[in-house]
Amino acid sequence: MKIIFFMKIFYTIIFLFFLSNLASSETNTLNKNCKGNLNKINFDNERPISINVETLNPRKWTKNLLKMLSETQFINKAEYKTLDEYRNFHKAKVIVNYKGNISCIYKGEVKIHGGTRNHRENKNQTTSLRIKLFDGHILNHTHFALLLPKSRNGDNEVFGASLFRQLNFISPLTFYTKTKVNNIIPYKVIFQARDDNEVLFYNNTREGIVFAGNKTRGDKATSLSRISNINFSNQFSKQLLFSTLDKLNTIYLFGFSEKILNKYKNINYFNLSVYEALVISMGGGLEKEDRKFYYNFSREFFEPIFNDTDLTILNKNFTKTDNLNLNKKAIDEALFKLNSLDIQGLQNEIAKNNLIMNEDELRKIILKINNNLQTLGEMKDLKNKENPFQENDIINLYIQNLIQNDFKIAFYHDDKNIKICSVKNKECSLEKISQKKLLEILSEQYVDFKNSKVKFVLNHDLYNYKINFKNDINYKNEIKIDNLKIKFTDGIKIKSDIENRIIEINQTDNAAKILIYDSLIENWRISIKGPNKVISKLASTLGLSNEEINRHMGCLTFKDIKFKDASLEIRNLGCKNSVHIINSNGNITNYFSNNTSNDALDIDFSNITFNDLKISNSGSECISLKTGYYKFFNLSADNCMHGISIGENGFLEIENLNFSFADIAITAKDSSNIILKNAKIDNTGLCLFAMKKNINFDGSIIKYKKNNFFCKYKIKKVQDTDEFSKISFF
Predict the structure, then answer these.
(1) pLDDT at 470
(2) Separation of CA 403 from chain center
(3) How many CB atoms neighbour CB 256 within 10 A?
(4) Candidate from 377-386, 414-423, 426-435 with smallest mean pLDDT
(5) 3-state secondary structure of 634
(6) In this structure, which topology does domain 498-729 adopt according to CATH?
């Protein structure tokens, strides 16, 4: 058998080397009309029909692939083998083909993906791939995997990713397509997004910290969690990062046991339980090293991210795994979500992802999941097989594993010092640490530090080292005014007049924050005033402090709000975002802002109409908009460092604009559109600016009404290197 296999490899190498020399000839026949069709492709969320790869050194790629295939041909399909020496990136040209004979060619790199044999097909010499694009994107994604369907149970993965997104869980863009490498052997693959921030954007979720299990499968006994997107962590204080990792490590340490975790008031596990109930009801797995989480800082809980669950619900021989530790309320919530599902919406979603299922098939599958959930609920009522180990037993066993593996443990002290303790004798020392090494502790299984293996576990006092965080919870206070749900930190005073629908908020500390969420704000007039009376345009007196643990949050944040004829008034605020509106919709009749050290108004992932806005004296942007649909009827703004910007697939229409004193009045960036009907702009360095800033997006468009547009200075500019953006009149 071995002789036959290696003879096959020999002839395949000759064959592939011959064909690889022909790879470049296909490039000349590719369509060159990518640029003119990208806006429509992205607007329609059109999936490519194929994603082909041409490596710059095809012989090197082929030799590397065949060596790896020969080394893995006899291992068990599920056995993990890193084979790092074969999994380096190769420079490549990536050809993305859409229907209508449209092709886009990008520079990028590709490598072999996956550590199990399920990611390989020796017969056809094919493998799962990991691809990064350098100068373009696929539906705002630049980093993705092309997976052999068998590595993710085929249709189950596409169906599951689509279903969980429809159920409002974070789920990566996942669809069927085809690929071929160096013009050889096209084969079917599953496209799946890999970049954490791109996954969040696809799910209309604000950029934040993503956590994951450790994929170093050789040390499960001491493996906990880590920060997956550590390169994005700069906007968060290190103390907050360690505090949040502490929470997730607590969940991992106690084996996701909700009975134990309910004792910890700073851990809200319910949302994870709902996800677990759905995964189990669909025959999936919950291996801790495969799980991923997004920490919702405003709501202070972990949100599960659909990832590598190995669902089997579509299999003919489907059997679910029994789990009697599930929360009965979580099972009920999972049933509620499932029963509220828009079947037609799900069918449309999976059809876009190139999986065809008729409505009758879908209803049968959903009914099967529903029945499985009900069975889980009945079993929960009958018997509860909770882990017999108590907290102290689990901790002591874990400590013994640390000792056996010769680990020391690290405790966060401050941004320049770390406390290192011996597990054996509990002797500790305070050590200076670089920022790079500090981030490694957050993002790696362990780090080598001064000739020792060091890992962060918890900052609790479970080891009797008496280390705790003072600011473990962002919003310590919670009230309800009428139907408005409100959380706030210390340093906030609230007065309300329900009869006249007035809420007055006073900051006694310029770092204090307030959150209003999951509410209908109808005919309310809400005002917030900071403690400082006067600031200069560029002053930093109200600016961010390095000690401010929750500096990523706005002074006043609205999340998941329905606005109806609301009014907002803002004065003297010093947060990074004075007012931040997220995932909300409706109309605001009046918005007034004066004296803010940073952005006066930020809005993300929303659909909001404003009647009248007046903004003065902002130390940064007057208005910053992202991803959504916005309309301003009457906008007056002056004395901002920057003017009004919209980015990341946003659309803005302004009926009447009166603007003065800023470096740039209006900016459209990253696949955004602005329509100006009437505008008077004075004392600005530049009136209109259109640009492409990020490779995840394309150019932007600004259109203004020629006869109603007045600008005394330089009217417009398109970024010099940007061939996609444009500014025009109508």
Answers:
(1) 47
(2) 36
(3) 18
(4) 377-386
(5) strand
(6) Pectate Lyase C-like (2.160.20)
